[in-house]
């Protein structure tokens, strides 16, 4: 038996169409689950102010490749 539950949410038809074009079918569940996991982790760390930032458009998703050099930079920033 799985510990997973199903989440249902309504989205605009345009967003659904755009998502269908760019997210491969087999990747949708794991991608959305990963995004939700990272959002929850951010909320646990930063608190509810992150909700306002995301909804208000003050938060931007940025891709940072995990290279050895990049990891060292990110770790040094955590100590600041």
Main features:
80 residues, mainly alpha, extended
Element string (H = helix, E = strand): HHHH
Instruction: Kindly report the oligomeric state of this protein.
Output: single chain
Give helix % range.
55-70%
Mean pLDDT metric: 86
Between the first and last Cα atoms, what is the distance in angstroms? 44 Å
Give the beta-strand count: 0
Structural class by SSE content: mainly alpha
Computed over alpha carbons, the radius of gyration is 16 Å
Number of domains: 1
Largest sheet: none
Q: How much of the residues is beta strand, in percent?
A: under 5%
Principal-axes shape call: extended
Name the poorly predicted regions. Answer: none
How many helices?
4
Describe this structure in words.
With about 80 residues, this protein is mainly α. The chain is about 60% helix and about 0% strand. It has one domain (about 15-80). It contains 4 helices and no strands. The longest helix is centred in the middle third of the chain and has 19 residues, at about 30-45.
């Amino acid at each position: 038996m799985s510990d997973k539950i199903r989440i249902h949410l309504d989205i605009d038809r345009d967003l659904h169409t755009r998502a269908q074009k760019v997210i491969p079918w087999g990747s949708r569940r794991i991608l959305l689950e990963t995004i939700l996991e990272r959002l929850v982790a951010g909320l646990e760390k930063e608190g509810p102010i992150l909700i306002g930032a995301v909804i208000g458009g003050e938060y931007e998703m940025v891709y940072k490749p995990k290279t050895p050099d990049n990891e060292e930079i990110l770790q040094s920033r955590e100590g600041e």
